[in-house]
Amino acid sequence: MKKNRFLRVLLILLLVLLMLTGTRAIGLWNENGFDLDSVRRFFNMEPREVAELRKQEIPQTDEGHQEYYFKLLDEEEQRGYREMLDGVRKRKEEFYLSISSDDKVDRAYHALLKDHPELYWIHNRKQVYKTTFSKGDYCLFAPGYTYTSQEMEEIDQAMEQAYQEVLSMLPEDASEYEKARVVYTYLIDSVDYVVSEDDQSIAGAFWKHKAVCAGYAGGVQYLLERLGVTCIYVEGSARGSDEGHAWNIVQLDGQYYYLDATNGDQPEFLEGDAVSMEEHKTIIYDYLCPFPDEYEQNYTPSEEFPVPDVQAGDKNFYVLNQGCFASYSFQELYDYCCMRLNNGAAVVRFKFTSQEAFDAAYTEWIQNGQIQALAQYYMELYQINQVEYHYGILEDLKTMYFMF
User: Fold this and answer.
1) How far is CA 337 from CA 190, 288, 365, in A?
2) Are the C-beta atoms of 372 and 346 separated by less than 8 Å?
3) pLDDT tens digits for 350-395?
4) What are the pLDDT digits (tens) for 311-329?
5) Which pairing describes strands 255-259 and 324-325: parallel, antiparallel, or unpaired?
6) SS3 for the chain, per residue?
7) Dihedral, CA atoms, 314, 320, 325, 329, nearest 10 degrees?
8) Which superkingdom heads the taxonomic lineage of this protein's source (predicted)?
9) Rounded to the nearest 5 degrees, what angle is found at the Cα of 57, between the Cα atoms of 232 and 93?
10) Of 310, 275, 387, 298, the residue nearest 341 (C-alpha)
11) Which distant-in-sequence residues (6+ apart) come within 8 Å of 7 by Cβ?
12) What is the pTM (predicted TM-score) of this model?
């Protein structure tokens, strides 16, 4: 006890000595007296704000947000994630984090961006700065922001308008699949794939209507989350490309599926001369719940975070519309195409589950010209003397499109 009392007295004497011999010179004293934060730093003590952060409980949920990646973080990273979320929402230029490790800060920050597409003002190529302190497990975090207050108001209005437009397209009892389908088609119809200053966030998708994969995937996540559908933003790589890619994993009726609105809005993925026909512009549904094995041949998620295992294929567009064939039969395929034309379709599309069946159909219908038999049926159906037809293929997904 005497030793502890002695140390306290010594500390007090030291502080008095500092006051008397130039505390102003070393920044511990100001016109209001002691600068306690400076005193803390001088003695390698944590700032008051950091001490308060450490006392706070870590909320495990955030209302209105699913936060898949938050749940993959350890306790320290989760604390940093919550501190970042609070600072960014308040648009603080810099703020303390009670963590300092580069790995933990990076994981928390990356998880935050993936979980919260609505934080668009920090998601467009802005530099992040971090200041660490010796002998202290804390840092000053300074995310780079963009957009003026006026621009943010316009972006927020555009986001709300997009949500209301999607709501107007859905019946009250819409299934999770129907919500996913409408959001998928909405993004494709309302956004153009264009590289721009805003292309990496939902600001580009909803405000400028121009985005790349990050904007599309963030837009899908934002809308589906508001509709109550579990949707995960995924970053990864594309086979044969040095550029990254972003897509979504959605949970529909308890099963996980891929959803890639970016590829659904890329007419150049179709081969043949159909891609140049504006009047034949059509939604490419191949990337709405594609078969997992086919999708994974081209896209691989990053290794930073694990993502759910996708196995289901029952909500594939072609499965739901009886346009998926396990083998090839000219008569079976011809009957299917005639049925689609009878129902008023201007675009007939179908896919195969085996490469052998796809190759056989391609050889007979495209190379050998049997598509002309379907064109003849189209003319008879509409009582016309001639028709111009085009085709397109998605070879990786074993899909064919006939357009009249």
Assistant:
1) 29, 21, 12
2) no
3) 999 999 999 999 999 999 999 999 999 999 999 999 988 888 888 8
4) 999 999 999 999 999 999 9
5) unpaired
6) CHHHHHHHHHHHHHHHHHHHCCCCCCCCEECCEECHHHHHHHCCCCCHHHHHHHHCCCCCCECCECCCCHHHCCHHHHHHHHHHHHHHHCCCCCEEECCCCHHHHHHHHHHHHHHCCCCHHHCCCCCCEEEEECCEEEEEEECCCCCCHHHHHHHHHHHHHHHHHHHHCCCCCCCHHHHHHHHHHHHHHHCEECCCCCCCCHHHHHHHCEECHHHHHHHHHHHHHHCCCCEEEEEEEECCCCCEEEEEEEEECCEEEEECHHHHCCHHHCCCHHHHCHHHCCCCHHHECCCHHHHHCCEEECCCCCCCCCCCCCCCHHHHCCCEECCCCHHHHHHHHHHHHHCCCCEEEEEECCHHHHHHHHHHHHHCCCHHHHHHHHHHHHCCCCCCCEEEEEHHHCEEEEEC
7) 160
8) Bacteria
9) 70
10) 387
11) none
12) 0.86
Let me know how long the chain is: 404
Beta-carbon neighbour count of residue 124 at 10 Å? 20
Q: How many CA atoms lie within 13 A of 43 on its CB side?
A: 12
Where is average pLDDT lowest: 29-43, 227-241, 271-285, 350-364? 29-43
